Every structure is written in structure tokens, then in C-alpha cells.
Amino acid sequence: MKAADTQALARLLAGAPTKWGRWGDADEIGALNYLTEREVRLGLAAARQARTFTLGVPIATDAGDAVFPGRWAARHYMVADKAGFEAGHWHPLDGGLEFADDYVNGFAQAGTHCDGLGHMWFDDTLWNGYPASSTNGGMTKAGIMPIAERGIVGRAVLLDIARFRGKPKLERGETFNHTDLIACAKAQRVEIGRRTILLVRTGWVGALLDGRETVVAGQYWEPGLTFSPELVRWFDEMEIPCLVTDTLANETTYEPDTGVMLVLHAALMRNLGIVFTEMAWLDALAADCAGDGQFDGFYCGAPTKVTKGTGGSINPVFIK
Ligand code: UVW
Prior knowledge:
- With 320 residues, this protein is of the alpha/beta class.
- It has two domains: 16-70 and 108-319, 3-Layer(bba) Sandwich (Glucose Oxidase, domain 1), CATH 3.50.30.50; 75-104, no CATH class.
- Helices cover 23% and strands 17% of the residues.
- Strands 1-13-11-5-7-9-10-4-12 form a nine-stranded mixed sheet, with helices on both faces. It has a two-stranded antiparallel sheet with strand order 2-3.
- Acetylphosphate binds at residues 68, 109, 115, 119, 248-249, 265, 276, 278, 311.
- Residues 68, 109, 115, 119, 248-249, 265, 276, 278, 311 line the site of acetylphosphate (UVW).
């Protein structure tokens, strides 16, 4: 596909809806404002079996974590361990207690993570109209901190698009849209409902974790939701607060008609303030939901409070 020019995204989204100003000039959490006490109670009521699932993927794995091209995997180093005490690098605390300490480094967006609303932009403008210069040297607007302070809590629905299409995982570049989400929900006999946190499973992260798929720079094309004005309008009208998927970037990498990359980061995150949580582990939850027919539940997660950060690791908990 021919690369899209740098104005292609602005052309594609000319006249697209935004929610800038809807929650005031100082807002940094966007559609999370939809998650009020009512939505938390709806979520709690959906936890009918009191069974829990964690949705984070392991990081700093021996095999090397899958990360979006241009990033590198998290790394884990032991700083203090028994061998260090035996070698005399460390000494027991007064009284005899010894300890193990470690150090982890990596991208805020390595592993399951949540993006601040200012993580991506075009036209020099972030969520809510903040200037792109507010990212210089650290996010002073629409970073991860306000989202981390708020938390993401409410009723969630898992939409298992891979199973709905009768496949273990979607293919490279395979797309779907909001009408597929609606049809999937109908087949699963679950109501999406306004202000629902959407969990969308493609089977892709499972394939990255077990090596059926790999990330090759320059050739990487994830399956996922694809842009259309109707899709954006549906997310807006449904007041979706948060989109969680099992892909590295929550949407198909290239809009197939234009070649524009990551259109929904602009149309949903930058414009509508919908919070993105990416690279979630949904396979175990999906297998369980297929088994008992309950696809909704209580979702609770908050990213790490990284000062001036663009994003943060998250290990959401789903209780059904
Ligand atoms: C990219 O930045 C490509 O994706 P993410 O939304 O994971 O941060």
C-alpha cells in the first residue's frame, strides 16, 4: 500500500465529532466522565458469580515481549538476591533479614497498558484542544496521571469477535466495525448498553504470546476495528468510556482505503476522549464466557501513576 501523506488524517476526519469542552476546559479524562456512581453500581450488579479474571499479559518474558514496532520489550534485572549476599555485595539488615530487589525498565506502552488522552494527536492539538507543545519534556496536559487517579470502573461486556467468526484468531489486517460488534453481542445474547466498557477479543495477543504471530517492523498489520464516520458516531452515541482490546494498538494498523495509520487513535481517543487500554489478555475470560454464556461483568482497573507519563501499565480485573 502507498503511504498516506501527512495531511491525509486531517482530511479523513474533517468535520468529525469531538467532545472537546463537554466536561470543561480543564478536562483530562474525557469519556471516563460517563462512569458515574450509577455505572459503578451497574458493574457491581453484573458480578453475579463473584469469579475473577486478571487481564494483564506478562512482561519481561524470557521469549521477549511483543511490542509495537519502534518500541522494545520491558527488561527485568535482579539487583539483590541470595547470590549477591553470598558474594558479599549485600549484607543482612540489622537483625539478619535478607532481601531480593529488582529493577524493571521498558516503555509505558509495553505490555497491557492504558494511554493518556494526549498520547497521540494531529493538527498540533491534543484532546480537549490542548497544544501539542504540552507534551514537551513530559505530559503537562492529558497524560496518564488524571486517568490513573480516576480509575476505570464500571460494567463491561466482552465481545468475542474471533469466536463469532468461527476462528481462533483474526487474520493479519482483518477488519470489523460497529455493526459486527452489535451482531456479536446479539449472538452472545448480551446487551451492550450505553456507557459500557467494551472488551473486544480478536485472539491476536494470544497468537503473539505463543509465537503464531510475530511483530516484524515495516510489515506489521494488526486486525481490528476500522474507521468509518458511522462507527465513530456509534461510539459517540453509546457514550463508550473505554475500549479494551487484545491487540497492540486497539485498531487495524492501516485504514484499508487510504493507508492512514491508527485513525481511531485520532477519531475516538483524541476527538471523543475514549480511553484506550491495549494488549489485554482476553483468551481465558473468553473461553469461560463461551462456557457459561455470561459475557458481562464488573471491570476495575487503574494504570500506574507515572508522573507526566504518556501511558501506564495496567492489570485490569474482571469479575463476572
Ligand atoms: C501506539 O502508540 C502505536 O499504540 P499505543 O496506543 O499502544 O500506545
